[in-house]
Amino acid sequence: MSDEIEIDIDDLSRRMDGALASLRTEFASLRTGRASGSMLEPVQVEAYGQMTPINQLGTVNVPEPRMVTINVWDKAMVGKVEKAIRESGLGINPQLNGTIIMLPIPELNEERRRELSKVAGSYAEHARVAVRNVRRDGMDQIKKAKNNGMSEDDQKLWEAEVQELTDKHIGMIDKALETKQEEIMQV
């Protein structure tokens, strides 16, 4: 490979890893019938003049497999946290007990499981598109380098390396999707 012309494979890999990390975060927010503190990560609360994540307003615990509790530190915020959860679209009905908000996780029915499985599939497709966009950027870098004097052999080597990186990340996304769909469909 040419010494003068370098394609930044590490940068491409880092960006593809970012797409995978984003997918895992989205998967964590999908409710599978088991309680998880991470399901509250996307929920923001209007607190002290700005949008704040719930985990910065109280302690999130999972005392049992089908229950999440939030011990809100500031009593004035309890109502706002409850309202944010209710309006978040998670489909959970919060119950108040002083400064503790309890979130019982209902059992998922078959229809809801299929729906969540489709949502997981669309999240995975978005991640695949992001990885392909990074691949396209890498291929564009290679084309520019070829126009600046990269040999055809070097071009083919770099293209193969970028494609291999892409295939590896797409495979990881597919595996993560398969695992999540199994988890969703598990009764």
Automatic annotation (TrEMBL):
Coiled coil: none annotated. Residues 23-185 form the Ribosome recycling factor domain. Keywords: Cytoplasm, Protein biosynthesis. Its main location: cytoplasm. One of its GO terms (molecular function) is ribosomal large subunit binding. It is found in: Cytoplasm. GO terms for cellular component: cytosol. InterPro entries: Ribosome_recyc_fac, Ribosome_recyc_fac_dom, RRF_sf. GO terms for biological process: cytoplasmic translational termination. Pfam families: RRF (PF01765). Belongs to the RRF family. This is Ribosome-recycling factor. It comes from Pararhodobacter marinus. The lineage of its organism: Bacteria, Pseudomonadati, Pseudomonadota, Alphaproteobacteria, Rhodobacterales. The gene is frr.
